[in-house]
């Protein structure tokens, strides 16, 4: 598995996969349940990741769905669909743990936490006629994503629990881990130093952008798993919670959260750096309009920082447009790939250290490789035409005289993208 960035997304699948889905639903409602399930599993399978495995024998299926550090195993047999995943193990049941599981069961729509042989597992079962593809998709997604998240959260919160067997992970080579840790520490440290030089009342918004962008950048470029990923999610949820807390207080809390991550022993951070396969995206699908809404809500904030010579904060806000979308949304692929280019250009030193050879922007000479950037964008648009035949991006409108000019004109072109099918 090569170096990957960000979180897995199953949003906006190619046409062939959509056709599998449509056939699956039609076959099921024609009561050809098992043929419908075969197309359903073909829809779930991601050809790039090669995630899901299944076998069919007559009307029986066995399947495995990887999701992060967990694998959902299940079968279709004797008119029933069953799927489950181990979450944690224990020696003796605990009242506090049982109470937590009971509370979480109330929030589940399709699956449930259960106990089996001193193990906590999450399980779904139903009859075949009551399990059309749409229900199975959301049931399996709920089961898989909860299992992947709760193994870390439960074992962190309850000392008497230990994590159930981890499966499907790929260790990252030690040199890659070292580079990722170096930049993990650097980005948090640089942000702390920059914030220390700003008036916390005058620069409330700027400080928020710096902190949020650092968290989202770590999430996308370093792609941590486990506890580290959960802490970044919590930082984001706390900031955007509608709790009427002043933003100065929220900024302080974010700064403390990032410092807490930086204070973790290096080996603890390295433990959360590994690669996985997944079947379901965490972020919900979001159309290009969600990207445009984010642009409209934030672009006007950049002008003041440019006019007052805080160019680094202006660049951070442009980067935030990319990192927020990559963290929060299951994006159309052209949007995701265009944002990846932004991340590559702004963080070119990181990509070069990881071994990527395409140098879109030389930070030392402050010069772009104009043609390389244009070719990359043209390829993205060409690939996107299958789903979005009216997709166009005028690379001739890009300005390459400075990083800010490029980002301004690049985002302006993204605002013009037409994603009509």
Strand content: 5-15%
Q: Number of domains in the coordinates?
A: 2
Q: Which structural category do the helix and sheet elements fall into? A: alpha+beta
Helical content class: 40-55%
Q: Biggest β-sheet: count, sense, barrel?
A: 8 strands, antiparallel
Total DSSP helices: 16
Low-confidence stretches: none
Distance between the termini: 32 Å
Average pLDDT: 94
| Helix and strand element order | HHEEEEHEEHEEHHHHHEEHHHHHEEHH
As a whole number of angstroms, the C-alpha radius of gyration is: 23 Å
Oligomer: single chain
Salient structural properties:
two-stranded antiparallel sheet, Yope Regulator, Chain: A, alpha+beta, 16 helices, 2 domains
What does this structure look like?
Helices cover 54% and strands 14% of the residues. It is globular and about 70 Å long. β5 (112-116) and β6 form a beta hairpin. It folds into two domains: 15-163, Yope Regulator, Chain: A (2-Layer Sandwich), CATH 3.30.1460; 172-415, no CATH class. α12 (311-328) runs antiparallel to α13 (333-346) and α12 (311-328) packs parallel to α16. The chain has 421 residues and is an alpha+beta fold. 34% of the residues are buried. The strands form three sheets. Strands 1, 2, 3, 4, 5, 6, 7 and 10 form an eight-stranded antiparallel sheet that branches. Strands 8-9 form a two-stranded antiparallel sheet. It has helices spanning 15-29, 33-44, 95-107, 133-157, 174-196, 204-222, 226-240, 247-262, 266-271, 288-298, 302-307, 311-328, 333-346, 348-354, 370-384, 403-415; strands spanning 53-57, 60-68, 70-77, 80-90, 112-116, 119-127, 161-163, 170-171, 274-275, 277-278, 361-362, 367-368.
């Amino acid at each position: 598995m090569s170096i990957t960035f960000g979180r897995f997304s199953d949003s906006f699948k190619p046409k062939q996969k959509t056709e599998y889905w449509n056939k699956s639903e039609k076959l099921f409602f024609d009561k050809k349940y098992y043929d419908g399930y075969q197309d359903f599993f073909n829809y779930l399978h991601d050809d790039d990741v090669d995630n899901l495995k299944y076998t069919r024998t007559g009307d029986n299926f066995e399947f495995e769905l990887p999701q992060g550090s967990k694998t959902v195993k299940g079968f279709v047999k004797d008119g029933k669909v069953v799927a489950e995943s181990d979450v944690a193990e224990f020696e003796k049941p605990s009242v506090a743990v049982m109470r937590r599981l009971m509370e979480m069961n109330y929030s589940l729509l399709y699956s449930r936490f259960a106990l089996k042989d001193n193990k906590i597992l999450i399980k779904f079962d139903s009859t075949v006629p009551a399990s059309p593809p749409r229900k199975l998709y959301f049931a399996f997604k709920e089961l898989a994503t909860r299992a992947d998240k709760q193994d870390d959260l439960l074992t962190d919160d309850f000392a008497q629990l230990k994590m159930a067997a981890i499966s499907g992970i790929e260790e990252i080579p030690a040199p890659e881990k070292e580079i990722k840790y170096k930049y993990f520490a650097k980005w948090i440290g640089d942000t702390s130093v920059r914030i220390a030089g700003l008036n916390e009342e005058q620069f409330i918004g700027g400080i928020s952008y710096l902190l949020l962008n650092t968290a989202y950048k770590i999430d996308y470029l370093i792609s941590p798993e486990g506890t580290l990923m959960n802490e970044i999610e919590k930082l984001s949820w706390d900031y955007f919670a509608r709790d009427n807390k002043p933003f100065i207080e929220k900024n302080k809390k974010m700064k403390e959260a990032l410092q807490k991550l930086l204070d973790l022993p290096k080996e603890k951070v390295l433990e959360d750096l590994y690669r996985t396969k997944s079947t379901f995206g965490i972020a919900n699908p979001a159309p290009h309009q969600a990207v445009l809404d984010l642009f409209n809500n934030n672009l006007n904030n950049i002008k003041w920082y440019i006019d007052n010579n805080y160019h680094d904060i202006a660049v951070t806000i442009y980067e935030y447009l990319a990192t927020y979308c990559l963290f929060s949304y299951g994006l159309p692929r052209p949007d995701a790939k265009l944002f990846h280019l932004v991340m590559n250009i702004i963080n070119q030193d990181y990509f070069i250290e990881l071994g990527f050879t395409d140098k879109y922007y030389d930070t030392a000479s402050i010069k772009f490789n104009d043609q390389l950037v244009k070719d990359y964008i043209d390829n993205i648009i060409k690939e996107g035409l299958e789903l979005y035949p009216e997709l166009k991006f005028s690379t001739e409108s890009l300005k390459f005289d400075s990083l800010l000019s490029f980002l301004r004109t690049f985002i302006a072109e993204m605002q013009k993208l037409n994603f009509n099918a």
